[in-house]
Write a structure and sequence with these properties.
Length: about 240
């Protein structure tokens, strides 16, 4: 592998304003997309260099780096070691992607699962890889954290938070080994939001999509944790895509 470099710490374009802390926040299986994107949907890849440290929810030392691999392209690797403060990365989707995104697709793999971690046990909520999807309505932020857990049951929804300014769920998307193998995921963000924040109402209005985050952590269990993230793509119909 070549071209590794530290992801620079900068102010995020938007505040991922979950003051309760993303590392403690919280795909429901019903919201997981089983169908490919519509044939007239255009793919909008997110450049991995757009992910930046979310200052408000991060410690002073970033433990992520961008790596270029001939077989994979650019991906981000997070390696958490005990005593570090957790760091969250975030990429704003941009104004043209606030509405109308029908699918979000990404790949991830884990290398080291934090020992004893389990998102559904208070005080044990670490994971080798987490992907956040965030929306905003007025002053209230919503997020779903898709977790690759060490030990929680796949499909469980844990760590629900509801407050006037933030709503969040953690959904266990994968759990345990294998390590070192890439897995591709795909979600319907509107269906995901409605399932978790609107009681499954298919007609509920979905607020504007804000961005995607990632977190590798092991601070609660004081354990090493490591995972990779790559190939984030948003799919939106050409007739509604902003140019």
């Amino acid at each position: 592998m070549r071209g590794a470099r530290k992801v620079g710490k900068v102010h995020a374009r938007v505040v991922f304003a979950l003051a309760l802390g993303l590392s403690m926040l919280g795909m429901g299986t019903a919201a997981a997309s089983e169908n490919p994107p519509p044939p007239d949907a255009r793919a909008f890849p997110i450049d991995m260099h757009r992910f930046r440290v979310l200052d408000r929810d991060s410690g002073p030392v970033s433990y992520y780096r961008i790596i270029q691999d001939p077989a994979v392209g650019f991906f981000i690797r997070g390696v958490y070691t005990p005593a570090l403060e957790t760091v969250t990365l975030f990429a704003d989707v941009g104004d043209g992607m606030r509405k109308g995104v029908e699918r979000i697709r990404f790949r991830w793999r884990v290398w080291v699962l934090p020992v004893g971690a389990n998102e559904c046990v208070p005080g044990h909520g670490d994971a080798a890889a987490n992907v956040y999807i965030a929306w905003k309505r007025g002053l209230r932020w919503y997020s779903v954290k898709l977790a690759w857990s060490s030990g929680a049951k796949v499909g469980e929804t844990c760590d629900k938070i509801r407050s006037p300014l933030a709503a969040s769920d953690t959904i266990v998307l994968r759990s345990g080994p294998p390590v070192g193998a890439w897995h591709e995921e795909e979600v319907d963000p509107d269906a995901l939001f409605r399932e978790h924040f609107e009681g499954g109402n298919p007609n509920a209005e979905v607020p504007e999509l804000q961005g995607i985050g990632m977190l590798t952590d092991g601070d609660q269990m004081h354990s090493v944790s490591a995972g990779d993230y790559a190939d984030f793509v948003l799919y939106k119909r050409l007739i509604t895509a902003s140019r």
